[in-house]
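User: Just a sanity check before I run the rest of the batch. Below are the structure tokens for the first item. I only need the designed sequence back.
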């Protein structure tokens, strides 16, 4: 496995591992210099504006993850 070949990977936090995986994916598919899809960018902007207007009506990643692990719905 790759982890045995690169021992420093085991010291990364889960968030760092996800970021590393995303960077590796972009590098593998050569998408680093591609522009993001304008529709995706607009959707993210809308979600950010909604969050800023209604911060108590959203769930943190930790809350969503806990619900997913426990099998509960919102």
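Assistant: Here's the designed sequence for the first item:
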């Amino acid at each position: 496995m790759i982890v045995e070949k690169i021992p420093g990977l085991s010291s990364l936090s889960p968030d760092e591992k996800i970021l590393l995986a995303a960077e590796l994916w972009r590098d593998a598919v050569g998408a680093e210099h591609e522009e993001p899809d304008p529709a995706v960018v607009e959707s993210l902007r809308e979600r950010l504006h909604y969050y800023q207007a209604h911060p108590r009506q959203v769930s943190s990643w930790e809350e969503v993850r806990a619900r997913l692990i426990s099998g509960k719905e919102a």
